[in-house]
Amino acid sequence: xxxFVKGLKFDENGLIPAVIQxxxxxEVLMVAYMNDEAAEKTLxxxxxxxxxxxxxxxxxxxxxxxxxxRVKEIRFDCDADCLLVKVDQVGGACHTGYRSCFYRKLxxxxxxxxxxxxxxxxxxxxxxx
Length: 129
Known about the structure:
Elements: H1 3-6, E1 16-22, E2 28-34, H2 36-45, E3 49-52, E4 57-60, E5 69-76, E6 83-89, E7 104-106, E8 113-115, H3 123-126
Parallel strand pairs: 1-6
Antiparallel strand pairs: 1-2, 3-4, 5-6, 7-8
């Protein structure tokens, strides 16, 4: 196992959160989880790999959509229990079709929400639902 990966503090489920950020404009694109295998594959291939908690399996970002994340830099926090992964994003990062998973924002203190993100693709066409 890579020395960097060995030094990370994975949680009791063997996972570490990864905040994915656009390397050019610092926009937060998504948050996902990595296990040691996903971290190793990410380092080796320079493409973001994650562990799906719902599907209980490793996945390459963009394996279905083609919207891969080319890793430019990996940072980790002072406790080594969270990653910041800076990427060049191809297409949209969000499975709902938006550039970022953070496409909604709170509009006021009453709970009103507005869409502030850019829709990049139609998920029904990309994922052939």
